[in-house]
Amino acid sequence: MPERGSAPLLRLWRYARHRRRQALLATFASVLNTLFDIAPPYLIAMAVDVVAAGEGESLIGRVFGLTSQRDELVVLGVLTVAVWVLESATDYWAEVLWRNLAQTVEHELRVDAYEHVQSLDLAAFEDRSTGGLLAVLNDDVNQLERFLDQGLMLIIHIATSVVVIGGTYLWYAPGIGVLAVLPVPLIVWGSIRFQRLLEPRYADIRARVGILSGSLANALGGIATIKAFGAERRELGRVTAESEDYRQANRRAIWLSSAFVPLIRMPILAGFTAILIFGGLMTLDGRLAVGVYTLMVFMVQRLLWPLTQLGQVLDQYQRAMASTHRVLDLLATPRAIEGGNRPLPQVAGEVAFEHVRFAYATGGDVLHGIDLRIPAGQTHAIVGATGAGKSTVVKLLLRLYDPTGGAVRLDGHDLRELRLDDLRAAIGLVSQDVFLFHGTVRENLVYGRPDASDEQVRAAAALAEAADFVEALPDGYDTVVGERGQKLSGGQRQRLSIARAILRDPPVLVLDEATSAVDNETEAAIQRSLARVARDRTTIVIAHRLSTIRHADRIHVLDAGRVVEAGTHDELVAADGRYAALWKVQTGEIAPDPAHR
């Protein structure tokens, strides 16, 4: 897991350690490419040396043992062709290596981050917006890819050029070499200074884009509510204000980053002028060869001008490191829910809550030491007023949260000992908050059982009273339901959710307000279907409508996080307690108590 607190580039290097060989190979290709790229001015200087010197007195003549200036020029021509071909080849090689490395790291980082997000418990999402997570998984990862694709190759090019060309100056004419290299520390210092000034500005930009992405995601997800309340202008104003904040954050960075190149040109001008004048005077005095002077004049811009690109590199670097912080911090978010090692090959379906206490991070206890035992194969219902803790019981059973006290057991095993995949494969959930994926009806039905046959899909749809309306759709089971199933009615979505759980055929079936969005006639049909489905499996029903659970083997009444009553429907009505009061309210015998609405 990437550690927090260290430098982002070091954290990235540690994260991508299995790609270091590829990175080193790409670096080697870039160094070779830079050497071939800066070679032509050396060849030009040699050509001038050949023309200006006598027969066999030029450097190329001495190296190759040539005495004819014509032969020397032919050799230089061959070397020039070779250098240009090799420069093109190494440029292609380096480009392919860096771009593939960038794409690979981007892919692996996004997949790892998404896998990690999926593994986090629900509490980790309480302070995070969907838009903010999307910004990290998409925009931040893309920002890092752009730096790896372009920025690192440019840094290597600049560093290699400075070392090779600076060394050449110092070798041939140390005095002029000092004048040429003298602006380099000033340029580097200015670059680092700009980097430090830009860092908080780009961190602010990444934070702003996360807020903006969150607002856009919320607005698009709630577009029907926005229209229903006529709040289009208000939402437009909100998005406009946040987009303006993002623009202003970018503007503050642009004002600073755009000043870099104009300022850096001044020391470059000073270095170029010094070499032009002092090198020329030394050549006129006979202390410097014409070829060497030509090389120095040609190479001064090759030495200093690439340093102006430090502004672009640092711009990319700061954006990328701000993004790297966010992505690796997300990866460093600890998992509160870790699966156990105990396999669960066969499940009878006995569920037990033993002295279970639970509190969300933002509040006090929701459950106060509840005890529930649901024998395998029985149907038990949990009822109670809103806020009594019914949905929390479901979340603990699915191990979306862990209890803060006590234990939840399946077939006698503490859920914390079981492998998460085995646990969740044993439980089928039909939630009141139905979620359908953008895809076909069939794709949604087989989500929990991808290998299901068409016959099994149709049988599950029939049991959930969904077959008739599905077959009436334009493309039947191949009809696309839209994002979150928006092309279907609430009742249709809920019936598909029930069919999806039935098709999975789990040993434990949990129905959390499974019929809350259907009419009475459909509800009655679904209840008949569920009665058949519930045979020989453990079924836990969370319900507000008491009429739907009156035939349960046992009913548990929750009130303020405690089990206050338990028994069959008839026993609880006869006891004339909390359940009986709820029953009388729903049958219209008495008016509801405002305290329990």
TrEMBL record:
<dbReference type="InterPro" id="IPR036640">
    <property type="entry name" value="ABC1_TM_sf"/>
</dbReference>
<feature type="domain" description="ABC transmembrane type-1">
    <location>
        <begin position="24"/>
        <end position="319"/>
    </location>
</feature>
<keyword id="KW-1133">Transmembrane helix</keyword>
<feature type="transmembrane region" description="Helical">
    <location>
        <begin position="178"/>
        <end position="198"/>
    </location>
</feature>
<keyword id="KW-0472">Membrane</keyword>
<dbReference type="InterPro" id="IPR017871">
    <property type="entry name" value="ABC_transporter-like_CS"/>
</dbReference>
<dbReference type="GO" id="GO:0015421">
    <property type="term" value="F:ABC-type oligopeptide transporter activity"/>
</dbReference>
<dbReference type="GO" id="GO:0016887">
    <property type="term" value="F:ATP hydrolysis activity"/>
</dbReference>
<keyword id="KW-1003">Cell membrane</keyword>
<dbReference type="GO" id="GO:0005886">
    <property type="term" value="C:plasma membrane"/>
</dbReference>
<feature type="transmembrane region" description="Helical">
    <location>
        <begin position="23"/>
        <end position="53"/>
    </location>
</feature>
<keyword id="KW-0812">Transmembrane</keyword>
<keyword id="KW-0813">Transport</keyword>
<protein>
    <submittedName>
        <fullName>ABC transporter</fullName>
    </submittedName>
</protein>
<dbReference type="Pfam" id="PF00005">
    <property type="entry name" value="ABC_tran"/>
</dbReference>
<keyword id="KW-0067">ATP-binding</keyword>
<feature type="transmembrane region" description="Helical">
    <location>
        <begin position="253"/>
        <end position="282"/>
    </location>
</feature>
<feature type="domain" description="ABC transporter">
    <location>
        <begin position="351"/>
        <end position="585"/>
    </location>
</feature>
<feature type="transmembrane region" description="Helical">
    <location>
        <begin position="152"/>
        <end position="172"/>
    </location>
</feature>
<dbReference type="InterPro" id="IPR027417">
    <property type="entry name" value="P-loop_NTPase"/>
</dbReference>
<dbReference type="InterPro" id="IPR039421">
    <property type="entry name" value="Type_1_exporter"/>
</dbReference>
<keyword id="KW-0547">Nucleotide-binding</keyword>
<dbReference type="InterPro" id="IPR003593">
    <property type="entry name" value="AAA+_ATPase"/>
</dbReference>
<dbReference type="InterPro" id="IPR003439">
    <property type="entry name" value="ABC_transporter-like_ATP-bd"/>
</dbReference>
<dbReference type="Pfam" id="PF00664">
    <property type="entry name" value="ABC_membrane"/>
</dbReference>
<dbReference type="GO" id="GO:0005524">
    <property type="term" value="F:ATP binding"/>
</dbReference>
<dbReference type="InterPro" id="IPR011527">
    <property type="entry name" value="ABC1_TM_dom"/>
</dbReference>
